[in-house]
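Tokens in:
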């Protein structure tokens, strides 16, 4: 037996968790196929990497060069490898015992991005590529600062070919290229771009060419002059503002305005040299680690140091800075990790593939009405949301862990060169966002097929747009950073951005040795911004999904959280309809005294706020709005009804009469247009969650999980009804036995393999498990064979002892067997109400006489019947067979028999019969009368 009171939160949560785990067990192979997808894509990446290694990384062109040398002159050559036997491309990979000295360079902005001071030049220099480069000065002593700024740059350029590095060291060399990961070949030297010399003025014919390096790593460079503009600013605040207002986003007129460097001389004087230097270190993610940018800084330090020495000792004093170089290196190989470069596209697909799985599951429950049927049996929104979310989160987390294990096990640097906890933290945040989005988006779909198509378009579209559009914008220096932020608000791009950062780190790590993305680098990388975006969107999506779900379940009421939860007696607007409506109802229903009496009984109960009856309906109406020019459809028209506990009330009516609409209103599927209804004292419009805790439903169509067995269905719904332990097992066994589902192992077979009759019996068993206080059954015996139907009727009749049951049916036999009272429902109205005997007595006060003769004796039969009963009415006539209704108060059965015997002596009677009125006759008569009245009314 059920425990007193509804099931607790934990009990209901336990029920749905067990159901989900069982469902997951039934779909184990689907999960295996899902997990195989990331494994398959990881294998594809390994294959691509292997192909790239064989064709690129390990190709002869990307190794130190070798030649076959005949050292002994005997015609036999020996393969010797080294720098002297290599091409320029191969020389990069050779051992370099004595690295090439490279002159120090300063990083300057490209011409279109240089700051322009209107006092010295105009905007036209941007078009002519002749804008000067700006160096700012500030400090406590302006005269000292102006002196040092004059000493900073040379006024002319001289070069001695015999000592090239010395000549270059006497000049200020610059490049627009940031330093590379290694200084064995400086990108500013080996590129096709010119090197600049910064001078206070650029004289005509100031371009020079020079050659640097030893074969094969020798390069000829063109050197162009660029004017250096030293400007004084009154404070470091001005310098700071001028630097940052022009970086990337541009200044007030939208133009980028970058400077070379800025010097804050602070309290420098003749006895104290104290300087702060600003330099460009803001290009995140483009050249890897911060240390590569520092290669351009030493020359800035040397310049201001020499300027200060000249201030103290005269123009001939300087510290010569000839070159920079690295330590000797061993022979190396090309180590481009192509899998990391294309990994973001593949892993975007892998992680986003979880969305269609989650979305399809949610929409399937919505499409099959499984969510609402669970709610009708007592599963509240709280347990459903918590367990469903945790359930999907556990599956997603397991999926992500498998992905990381697969990727690491087969050697993908994308996983090996990034800290595992850092990776998992990012993936964990995103799968939470993805689950929230799935809950949110599921409200927009009603069919699994549509949801699946849209979800997969999102998956593959996000990967392709990320790989071929968003990545292009990330790597392009001209794309505004603010727009990058806006694009990252799209979840697919925020995921791609995180994967891109992992890939770049893995790529750099494969070139320069392992350098993991760790938590200590979090604030210095782009991952902080992306993570914050994901966290905010996660909570916003989750709250929006819950809010929309509550709106849907509260009848599209956006202010559902303001509803009043007081007992039904405090809803006077629904209790007392207007006098005009009362008079109208009475005038139409004047001849239906039984219906009027039921309505008066309901009104009296509403005034007394009585809760003695399990179900009370007061003038329920449901009108569907007209569409395509059709008038509104009145499905239920002012229904008033009471059903006490222990009674089975049967609703009879033709198809389209409104029976199912009434059931849908009472079960919360449809909101009434007006009127009120109360179940166990709770208003169905405002307290449906409380109603569900004591309700059972057998819907018109079976709502079952195809992969769960009959026993598992009953265990789940039994737990929702607060059954536990032995009581639960006993109730399940009794339900299976009563529904005739125990023999042949049917109880432990998936419901998808049940016949229609088996599913129907299971649906009835589900509605009755846990002894609910109120049960709605919509045509429960449809599709059953006579034996099963009789057995099911016995079960329902036994269950109604402590339960109020409302049952709709087309079977008159079922109605007479089960129902204590009947109501005939036609065109949305209750036409009559009473027990079967009362209805037959009220609407069936006649016998039906059937007689078959030859056609020429039809008149004789009519005369015979008129003699017996002058008010007899012919209701049927075809080919000699006639039927007559004979009022019971005009004739006795013995008189009819005597008249038939007399007729047999006068003419041939082939067959005859006398029958009492059946419930079917009553139903047909009432339905025809009501339909005829509606046509002419």
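Residues out:
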């Amino acid at each position: 037996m059920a425990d007193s009171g509804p099931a607790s939160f934990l009990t209901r949560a336990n029920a749905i968790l067990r159901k989900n785990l069982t469902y997951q067990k039934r779909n184990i192979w689907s999960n295996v196929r899902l997990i195989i997808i990331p494994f398959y894509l990881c294998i594809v990446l390994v294959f691509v990497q292997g192909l790239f290694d064989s064709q690129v990384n390990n190709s002869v062109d990307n190794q130190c060069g070798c030649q076959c040398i005949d050292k002994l002159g005997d015609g036999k050559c020996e393969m010797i490898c080294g720098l002297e036997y290599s091409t320029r491309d191969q020389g990069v990979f050779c051992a370099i015992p004595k690295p090439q000295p490279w002159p120090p360079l300063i990083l300057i902005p490209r011409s279109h991005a240089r700051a322009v001071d209107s006092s010295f030049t105009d905007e036209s220099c941007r078009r002519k590529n002749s804008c000067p480069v700006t160096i700012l000065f500030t400090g406590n002593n302006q005269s000292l600062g102006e002196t040092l700024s004059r000493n900073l740059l040379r006024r002319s350029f001289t070069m001695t070919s015999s000592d090239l590095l010395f000549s270059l060291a006497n000049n200020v060399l610059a490049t627009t290229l940031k330093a590379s990961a290694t200084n064995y070949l400086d990108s500013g030297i080996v590129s096709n771009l010119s090197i600049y010399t910064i001078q206070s003025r650029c004289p005509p014919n100031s371009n020079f060419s020079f050659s640097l390096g030893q074969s094969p790593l020798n390069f000829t460079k063109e050197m162009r002059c660029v004017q250096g503009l030293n400007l004084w600013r009154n404070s470091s605040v001005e310098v700071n503002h001028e630097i940052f207002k022009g970086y990337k986003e541009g200044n007030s007129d939208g133009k980028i305005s970058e400077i070379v460097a800025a010097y804050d001389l602070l309290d420098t004087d003749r006895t104290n040299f104290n300087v702060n230097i600003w330099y460009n270190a803001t290009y995140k993610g483009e050249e890897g680690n911060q240390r590569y940018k520092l290669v351009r800084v030493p020359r800035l330090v040397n310049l201001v140091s020499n300027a200060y020495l000249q201030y103290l000792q005269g123009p001939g004093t300087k510290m010569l800075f000839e070159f920079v170089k690295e330590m000797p290196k061993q022979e190396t190989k090309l180590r481009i990790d192509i899998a990391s470069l294309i990994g973001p596209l593949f892993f975007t697909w892998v992680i986003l593939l979880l969305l269609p799985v989650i979305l399809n599951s949610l929409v399937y429950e919505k499409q099959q009405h499984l969510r609402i049927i669970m709610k009708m049996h007592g599963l509240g929104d709280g347990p459903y949301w918590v367990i469903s979310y945790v359930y999907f989160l556990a599956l997603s987390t397991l999926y992500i862990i498998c992905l990381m294990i697969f990727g690491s096990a087969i050697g993908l640097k994308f996983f090996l060169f990034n800290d595992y906890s850092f990776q998992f933290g990012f993936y964990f945040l995103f799968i939470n966002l993805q689950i929230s989005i799935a809950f949110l988006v599921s409200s927009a779909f009603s069919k699994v097929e549509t949801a699946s198509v849209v979800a997969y378009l999102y998956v593959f579209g996000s990967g392709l747009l990320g790989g071929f559009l968003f990545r292009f914008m990330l790597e392009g220096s001209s794309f505004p950073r603010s727009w990058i932020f806006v694009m990252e608000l799209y979840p697919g791009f925020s995921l791609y951005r995180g994967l891109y950062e992992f890939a770049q780190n893995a790529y750099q790590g494969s070139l320069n040795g392992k350098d993991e993305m760790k938590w200590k680098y979090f604030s210095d990388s782009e991952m902080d911004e992306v993570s914050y975006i994901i966290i905010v969107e996660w909570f916003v999506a989750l709250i929006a999904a819950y809010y929309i779900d509550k709106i849907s379940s509260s009848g599209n009421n956006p202010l559902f959280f303001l509803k009043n939860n007081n007992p039904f007696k405090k809803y006077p607007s629904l209790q007392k309809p207007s006098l005009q409506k009362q008079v109208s109802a009475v005038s139409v229903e004047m001849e239906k005294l039984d219906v009027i009496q039921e309505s008066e009984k309901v009104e009296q109960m509403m005034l007394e706020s009585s809760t003695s009856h399990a179900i009370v309906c007061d003038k329920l109406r449901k009108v569907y709005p007209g569409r395509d020019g059709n008038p509104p459809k009145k499905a239920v028209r002012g229904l008033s009804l009471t059903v006490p506990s222990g009674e089975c009330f049967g609703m009879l009516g033709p198809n389209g009469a409104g029976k199912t609409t009434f059931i849908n209103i009472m079960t919360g599927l449809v909101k009434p247009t007006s009127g009120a209804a109360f179940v166990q004292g709770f208003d169905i419009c405002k307290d449906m969650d409380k109603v569900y805790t004591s309700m059972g439903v057998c819907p018109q169509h079976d709502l079952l999980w195809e992969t769960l067995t009959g026993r598992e269905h009953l265990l789940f719904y039994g737990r929702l009804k607060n059954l536990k332990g032995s009581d639960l097992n006993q109730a399940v066994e009794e339900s299976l036995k009563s529904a005739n589902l125990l023999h042949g192992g049917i109880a432990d077979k998936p419901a998808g393999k049940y016949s229609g009759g088996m599913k129907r019996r299971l649906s009835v068993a589900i509605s009755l498990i846990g002894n609910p206080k109120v049960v709605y059954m919509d045509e429960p015996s449809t599709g059953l064979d006579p034996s099963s139907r009789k057995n099911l009727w016995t079960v329902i009749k036994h269950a109604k002892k402590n339960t109020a049951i409302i049952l709709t049916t087309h079977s008159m036999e079922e109605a007479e067997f089960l129902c204590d009272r009947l109501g005939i429902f036609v065109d949305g109205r209750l036409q009559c109400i009473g027990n079967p005997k009362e209805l037959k007595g009220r609407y069936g006060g006649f016998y039906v006489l059937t007689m078959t003769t030859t056609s020429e004796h039809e008149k004789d039969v009519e005369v015979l019947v008129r003699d017996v009963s002058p008010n007899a009415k012919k209701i049927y006539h075809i080919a000699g067979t006639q039927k007559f209704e004979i009022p019971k108060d005009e004739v006795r059965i013995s008189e009819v028999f005597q008249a038939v015997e007399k007729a047999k002596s006068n003419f041939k009677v082939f067959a005859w019969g006398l029958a009492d009125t059946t419930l079917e006759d009553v139903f047909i008569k009432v339905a025809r009368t009501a339909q005829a009245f509606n046509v002419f009314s």
